[in-house]
Amino acid sequence: MSLRWFREFTEFFFQKGNALNLAIAVVVGTQFQQVVNALTEDLLMPLLNPLIRNGGWEEWVIPYAGGELLLGQAMNVMLNSLIVGWVLFLLVKAINRSQRLASGGFDRLRSVKSSDDDS
Q1: Which of the four, 19, 29, 50, 65, has the lowest number of CB atoms within 10 Å?
Q2: Architecture of domain 2-94
Q3: Are 50 and 56 in contact (CB under 8 A)?
Q4: Is 61:71 a contact under the CB 8 Å cutoff?
Q5: Mutual angle of helices 18-38 and 71-118, in 10-degree steps
């Protein structure tokens, strides 16, 4: 039984390209996160910080019983997550649209070819 599982695992991991796809996804995801961080920290925050008294909102804390809740840092992570989600939404929307257009174009080509064959 364990030999069969090992064989299935090696097939899954090495022969189907999943490990390579995962490695590529990790690298692309890391680069994408750096782009989002740059957009947030270097473009968006410098525009918003002058509107906030006493510096940037990333510094906001809530004191409690001998410690602090890092409200600003949590808000920064949430903002980055919203930006990542928004960009991924737009990317998936564009991919889906291009696939629909491509399949529609192929269907039209097939119908033109089949009508040419019929004549």
Answers
A1: 65
A2: Orthogonal Bundle (1.10)
A3: no
A4: yes
A5: 120
